[in-house]
Write a structure and sequence with these properties.
The structure is a homodimer.
Chain A lengths: L24 E14 L2 E8 L2 E8 L5 H9 L5 E10 L13 E12 L16 H6 L1 H4 L3 H23 L3 E2 L17 E3 L7 E3 L5 H9 L4 E9 L11 E10 L3 H20 L9 E3 H8 L12 E3 L1 H4 L5 H8 L3 E7 L7 H13 L6 E5 L5 E3 L7 H10 L7 E7 L1 H18 L10 E5 L4 E4 L4 E4 L26 E6 L2 E8 L4 H10 L4 H14 L7 E7 H8 L30 H7 L1 E3 L10
Parallel strand pairs in A: 3-5, 6-9, 11-17
Antiparallel strand pairs in A: 1-2, 1-4, 2-3, 4-5, 7-8, 9-10, 10-22, 12-13, 13-16, 14-15, 14-16, 17-20, 18-19, 20-21, 21-22
Helix pairs in contact in A: 4-6, 4-15, 10-12
Catalytic activity (chains A, B): tRNA(Asx) + L-aspartate + ATP = L-aspartyl-tRNA(Asx) + AMP + diphosphate
Subunit structure (chains A, B): Homodimer.
Protein name (chains A, B): Aspartate--tRNA(Asp/Asn) ligase
Chain lengths: ~600, ~600
């Protein structure tokens, strides 16, 4: 059935053939996109990764047998065609790069026949995700996914090119490492040689890259596979890829500088987008106050306003209570949304409750200036007017207010702001707004653990000027940590690392670690630090998310060749799967009967 | 203790400062290689990854406090130095790139102090491997290891650059995959979400890269981490790195062509070595006959001679027996080794026995032409002379002969040839001899399984002209498989893949698989093949070994930043290690008490 390609050699990919080739003979190979017989002529759209070329089979140009074969062609057959390039006889197709030419076949081989695929191979597939993922090898034929994979490959290539030029060495770090209890849940790998012992797959190369700095490699990078055994969200995968880097003898500005030049290079080369440098810097506290988020989307305004001062004397219990508890009252102005139906507002209130708010107060200002408000009856007229004024409310605006502990108010209004932007269609995928968030808090209070935990990680350097507060007011200490945010997504983050014994010791104290605990958890890194350690800092990007934004798609699965679904399984290969008992025996492990408690989801 | 680098910015790495900078001020940062006080002047060799710069601290140039600090410097302290570049006041050091200049310090900061390291940081360390590996972060400071890591980084960068230009897309394939019982032993990863199920870490991206060809990606590559849970040999690691590629619409010649151009580019750019193209091609049978190995080292001759015909009528039972059993008698001529002492020859015999030989026959020809031989008494004078002539024996030569089944004879003499080359010092690490080995047997008989097994893998394409023998004489069928061999090391290998249903079916038959078994093991690849599959072929290199040869080192551990030792453990981090009981509970697995049988080594 399958013919050999012996004696034929592909001369071009489909869209590599141009008008300049008219009159010459080419050999193309690819998949039949579609095939139709019109008036005794067979027209075939031939597809390869470059695009489509129209092939004409006419008896006489091609021999009888070849013409007969052309008549049998169906979608997804793999063929080799030799033919003459001609100007298109029929209508020119301005949508195709090869729309002005076609190839008149003189030879045809059917290299591989194909069953009818379970869904058509075309852009913007409407097929169910489950089917697409089961037949991922077919889904990956679709031009939009191919474009994403090519873009991803290009991004990796350019990142590597840029970093190599900047003196970064690509160094591979191990992926069968030791499990550390800090951070997310590790994937474990049982050891056969040491039964009862386990490797862990790395959540990041963090410790190894810091060791490489101790070893004098000066500038390291790696596009590294990382692993987290967490319950998956839409934009998470059990294995993901980081652009990971670390630099010696640098401070915050050096890291930001090389990274924003890298981003500018990348966006220019791949998308033709000019990133204005320097990229805007915003402190964490400013980001929270203005946008209720440490990853603010700057493509639109709708900033938060702190109205605590304005409402501090009003009689509305919700506001009053929040302020008395040390919280705040803040709001956002949804411009032009004053006529939003009550039902829709109610949905926003529900949305806010999903983020922990007890409710959401609103003021709808009609086009005629009439004010409807959920809490008007508790407010004096002048209080209401002052509030509207503070929030720059105008006719036709909808003002939404939250009152609670400040952190909660930020979260609620930050999320609400994004939700409104979606509803108001303010998010343009072709606009790229970067911002550096800096001066993160070093520590955050964990209600669960009843202690401070590291906001980034325990090796993050405090800001020199705040070090004085580490014993007395640990929550006040800011860190030399930074995130790079693009369109409301944290695409990367990092920090300057502690390289001094005494600071590290203070940090562990603040985290409530004894010396022994610290040694147990981070022993070999602390040991390495005894032998001369340079000041160093680093940053890591989530490559998947970065590519997702560059490809302007909504799901991280659309930029990963063989992604897993929410339960961390692969619908195509059916991994994970049961294994032979013998394999487990060799590893010295056994499967235990499931207890109720362990099946919690 | 640790000073801040605030206000200082490194201007150069040590050896980036040249004579052109004489008179200007530079700021350098790095490690103290050594420090000595001579006549009230402190001389410091400052080291960074680029090399060494001599720093002069003299009171007056630097302030009192700075000079006092300089006096305290010890090996491996990390310092920042600002100073003026001057021509060397003392003796010029022609061994250093910076040997004609020095830096007269005007400012010094001690960024990090250091304890005395457990071994000196210098080239050609004589330190025990165990200590080096425990303190790998210090070992990695040694200039020879740093050179290796930089070379490795350069190799990866250049490979990617070359392949990107040739139209290869870098596509990441998953590493949490399904376990397949074929091949080496898998590392397993227990699934938490699906208790009782496991992922496997990939031994190679083989199936995924073939799927990508089915998906139309045309040319794929990846520098991919791979895993094999096998007992380690000197040149094996549990995780290793492959340069992996696959191409569509190609045959053997296309793969060889792009790869030898890549190798030539790489060796030219990295080592300045010109690789003559095309690289020599040798069929598998020629390689075995001439060198007793499918990875022949062509840096020296000492080829095998088949003397079966010559000795077929002699009375020596060993020769006779081998020939009667369908085996052969072959020998090598160790030129100029005729005077080898008997003891040394005995050692060679023992060496041969280690490869399964029952013995080794020899003929030592004295400088005066006298012949000593272990089997002279069984031979007629003219038979002996014919044998010597057939092996081109001359005065002063040592002829070594093995008689047994041909495969064993090849193995023994192939190994002996290498051993002699080592003893005779014929192996020059600066010489690079490449050869393609082609036309491997498709199948090899497994005594253990009592069936044919795939020599490469079950998807390897048979040569068209041999397909006729697949039912009747499966052992005669040659494959479209190829290895690239460098100085006796297989650095890469691959094959054209089967893409036709009927050929694949025949292959599975030859391997003794039922259709059901084939479907169970390779199901989703076979499914993918139903929907139109292009002819495709691929190749994979062992990056670690390639870099090892390019770096001219003997151990693969010297080109891996954080290698593991023979028991697959990391001496630095002590991975693998026991984990919390809670982690195992979450995974639904338990450690079972060790049975005797499972501890076999």
């Amino acid at each position: 059935m399958a013919e050999s390609m012996k004696g034929l050699k592909r001369s071009h990919r489909c869209t590599e053939v141009t008008k300049a080739e008219i009159g010459s003979t080419v050999t193309l190979m690819g998949w039949v996109q579609k095939s139709r017989n019109k008036g005794g002529i067979v027209f075939v759209d031939l597809r390869d990764r470059s695009g489509i070329m129209q092939i004409i089979f006419e008896n006489g140009d091609i021999d009888e047998q070849g013409f007969e074969k052309a008549g049998r062609l169906r979608s997804e057959f793999v063929i080799a065609v030799k033919g003459r390039v001609e100007a298109r006889s029929g209508a020119v197709n301005p949508n195709l790069p090869t729309g002005e030419i076609e190839v008149r076949a003189i030879e045809l081989r059917i290299l591989s026949e194909a069953e009818t695929p379970p869904f058509p191979i075309e852009e913007n597939s409407k097929t169910r995700d489950e089917v697409r993922l089961k037949y991922r090898y077919l889904d990956l034929r679709r031009p939009d996914l191919q474009k994403n994979m090519m873009l991803r490959s290009q991004v990796s290539t350019l990142v590597r090119q840029f970093l190599a030029k900047e003196g970064f060495l690509e160094i591979e770090t191990p992926t069968l490492i030791k499990s550390t209890p800090e951070g997310a849940r590790d994937y474990l790998v049982p050891s056969r040689v040491h039964p009862g012992s386990f490797y862990a797959l790395p959540q990041s190369p963090q410790i190894f890259k810091q060791l490489l700095m101790c070893s004098g490699y000066d500038r390291y990078f790696q596009i590294a596979r990382c692993y987290r055994d967490e319950d998956l969200r839409a934009d998470r995968q059990p294995e993901f890829t980081q652009i990971d880097m670390e630099l010696s003898f640098v401070d915050v500005e050096d890291v930001l500088d090389v990274n924003e030049r890298m981003l500018a290079f990348l966006f220019k080369e791949v998308l033709g987008v000019e990133v204005q440098l320097p990229i805007e810097r915003m402190t964490w506290i400013d980001a929270m106050n203005r946008f209720g988020s440490d990853k603010p989307d700057l493509r639109f305004g709708m900033e938060l306003t702190d109205v605590s001062e304005v409402v501090k004397d009003c009689e509305f219990a919700v506001f009053k209570g929040a302020l008395e508890n040390g919280g705040s009252v803040r709001g956002i102005n949804a411009k032009g949304q004053g006529a939003m139906p009550r039902k829709k507002i109610d949905k926003l209130v529900e949305f806010a409750k999903g983020y922990g708010a007890k409710g959401l107060a609103y003021i709808a200002i009609g086009e005629d200036g009439t004010v409807k408000s959920s809490f008007a009856k508790f407010m004096k007229e002048e209080e209401m007017q002052a509030l509207i004024q503070a929030m720059k409310g105008e006719n036709g605006d909808l003002l939404l207010l939250a009152a609670d502990k400040t952190k909660l108010v930020w979260d609620v209004l930050g999320a609400l702001r994004l939700e409104l932007a979606k509803q108001m269609d303010l998010l343009d995928k072709n606009e790229y707004r970067f911002v550096w968030i800096t001066e993160f808090p070093l520590l955050e209070w964990s209600e669960e653990d009843e202690r401070f935990t590291a906001m980034h990680h325990p090796f993050t350097m405090p800001m020199e000027e705040d070090l004085q507060y580490i014993d007395t007011e640990p929550g006040r200490v800011r860190a030399k940590a930074y995130d790079i945010v693009l369109n409301g997504n944290e695409i990367g983050g990092g920090s300057v690392r502690i390289f001094q014994d005494d600071v590290q010791e203070k940090m562990f104290e603040a985290l409530g670690f004894t010396k022994e605990e610290a040694q147990k958890q981070f022993g070999f890194l602390l040991d390495a630090f005894k032998y001369g350690v340079p000041p160093h800092a680093g940053l890591a990007y989530g490559l998947d998310r970065l590519v997702m934004l560059m490809a302007k798609v909504d799901s991280i699965r659309d930029v990963i060749a063989f992604p897993k679904v929410k339960d961390a399984s692969c619908l195509m290969s059916e991994a994970p799967d049961i294994v032979d008992e013998k394999q487990l025996e060799e590893l010295g492990i056994a499967i235990v009967a499931q207890k109720e408690e362990t099946t919690e989801e």
